[in-house]
């Protein structure tokens, strides 16, 4: 079995463990979508870029209501979350032409959640070979696109 180590993520996880507040609730309260990277607002959920993306186009679908897990969310919120995920996948396909996708929910720190306490669904476009030697040996992630460009591209794609 091969292992892929991601030591650069430790800083992010260590900072997140301080529970300084909820980054999602703070983004909503700021009412500045461009600054907080909210690319789409639904009725019960919103879509926000990940500030520490694994790939260009890495977004999260987040309920407006601060709930810690799937069991605590109401059916309407979960239904819209999946409908938005479907819309995001279509937008990512048209914008980035990925070869696959990862969709995932990490509940609790032990499960890999960098943000605990507020349910969110990660959606990542993927390509064969998108994890390369820079990641594995240089502890450096190479992103081909700045977040500001990803913001514009995804906001436009989701507005269609």
How does this structure look, described?
By secondary structure, the protein is an alpha+beta fold. The chain has a single domain, classed as 2-Layer Sandwich (HIT family, subunit A). 38% of the residues lie in helices and 16% in strands. The protein has six helices and five strands. Strands 1-2-3-5-4 form a five-stranded antiparallel beta sheet, with helices on both faces. Strand 1 and strand 2 form a beta hairpin. About 6% of the residues have low confidence.
Q: How would you sum up this structure in a few lines?
A:
The protein has 160 residues and is α+β, with helices and mostly antiparallel strands.
Q: Which stretches are poorly predicted, pLDDT < 50 over at least 5 residues? A: 132-141
Number of domains: 1
Radius of gyration (CA) equals 16 Å
Number of strands: 5
> How many H/I helical runs?
6
Q: What CATH architecture would you give?
A: 2-Layer Sandwich
* Element pattern in H and E: HHHEEEHEEHH
Helical residue percent band:
25-40%
Question: What is the mean predicted local confidence, pLDDT?
Answer: 85
Q: What's the main sheet like?
A: 5 strands, antiparallel
CATH fold naming = HIT family, subunit A
Question: How are the SSEs placed, and which strands pair?
Answer:
Elements: H1 9-16, H2 23-30, H3 33-36, E1 38-41, E2 45-49, E3 59-63, H4 75-96, E4 100-104, E5 121-126, H5 133-138, H6 147-159
Antiparallel strand pairs: 1-2, 2-3, 3-5, 4-5
Characteristics:
single chain, 160 residues, alpha+beta, HIT family, subunit A, 5 strands, 38% helix, globular
């Amino acid at each position: 079995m091969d292992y892929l180590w991601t030591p650069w993520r430790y800083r992010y996880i260590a900072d997140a463990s301080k529970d300084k507040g909820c980054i999602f609730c703070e983004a909503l309260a700021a009412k500045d979508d461009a600054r907080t990277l909210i690319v789409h607002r639904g009725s019960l959920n919103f879509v926000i870029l990940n500030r520490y993306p694994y790939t260009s186009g890495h977004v999260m679908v987040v309920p407006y209501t601060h709930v810690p897990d799937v069991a605590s969310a109401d059916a309407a919120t979960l239904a819209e979350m999946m409908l938005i995920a479907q819309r995001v996948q279509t937008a990512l396909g048209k914008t980035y032409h990925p070869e696959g996708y990862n969709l995932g929910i990490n509940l609790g720190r032990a499960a890999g959640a960098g943000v605990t306490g507020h349910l969110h669904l990660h959606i990542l476009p993927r390509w064969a070979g998108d994890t390369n030697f820079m990641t594995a040996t240089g502890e450096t992630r190479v992103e081909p696109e700045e977040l500001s460009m990803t913001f514009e591209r995804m906001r436009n794609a989701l507005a269609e």
